[in-house]
Amino acid sequence: MDSETGLNPRYTLGSFVVGKSNEFSHAAASAVVDGLGKKYNPLFIYGGVGVGKTHLMQAVGNEVKNKYQGRVRVRYVSSEKFVNEVVAAIRNRRTETMKDMYRLVDVLIVDDIQFIIGKTTCEEEFFHTFNALYETNKQIIISSDKPPKFMPNLAERLRSRFEGGMIADIGLPDYELKVAILRNRLQDRAVSLSEEVITFIANKIQKNFRELEGILNRILFVQKTKQTEITVRVAEQVIKDIIQEPTLHISPLDVVRAVAEAYEVSSADLTGQCRKKEVVEPRQIAMYLLRDILNLSYPSIGEKLGKRDHTTAIYAYEKISNELQKNQVLNQRILSIKELITKE
Predict the structure, then answer these.
(1) Which of 110, 174, 216, 276 has the fewest CB atoms nearer than 10 Å to its CB?
(2) Residue 83 confidence (pLDDT) above 60
(3) CATH for 23-170, among 3.40.50.300, 3.40.1550.20, 1.10.150.120, 1.10.150.240?
């Protein structure tokens, strides 16, 4: 980690594996390197946990640092660190020093901006920092778990600035990208697994790169320490030991509450007879998640959400399942809801 820039040198554009789910964001990030402050400013990258946002943003920072050989000042910071620095600056009466640290850079990269939302003083400081940099054509790159329009507590003046640049999403990796990632990591480590095992892992892991790499690390650890051939059966056992099903402590009410919170409607509306347009989609998503997470029967789902017929639950599940295949925004929203559920 470079203490001056906050960048980790191992994150590069060359090591960022590109697929359908991230090719647009990768193209936008690459374009930023060649047109700092002029093209795609700010660049707002959003996506779920572990899909590669940090890698891509830090890769841009490293690319800029290497290309311009110190002539361009880059600073990467997580929103958590930014908040801590604001608090410390206020407590130690060093706010001017902190302002200089951020407002005199040429490229500012802020990770997970959603954690600043609701912290009034930090939002205010970031707003003024953003303006100071933007007005002097300095490049700003921001990441979040969701696009600005789905951040209800975000101050409107920040939302309008975020939406004034380029918004690029990183979706969940598809099968081909997961296979490419696995092969890339195996090549980096000069080790091998059979095509059958690689295919099995890629099909089994559905969430993100972080989980994919965690499983690969464990499998390679087993291969090295036990000096055994990794078969599909061995890989299946490793995955089973690591991935714990989080459904045992989750109730249908937990699912309904999380959906209601995400869509800013009441749980009573979802479980009652309300037919307002703004309730239809969240109710369908609640039905989908009750089936997807808890594997409830369709009659049970219909009963819990307004005493509806089981065919309504079937329709909702199939509709959302089909929409997820082509709608990355919905994908990210459901991923965020699942994270809410497992935190409860």
Answers:
(1) 276
(2) yes
(3) 3.40.50.300
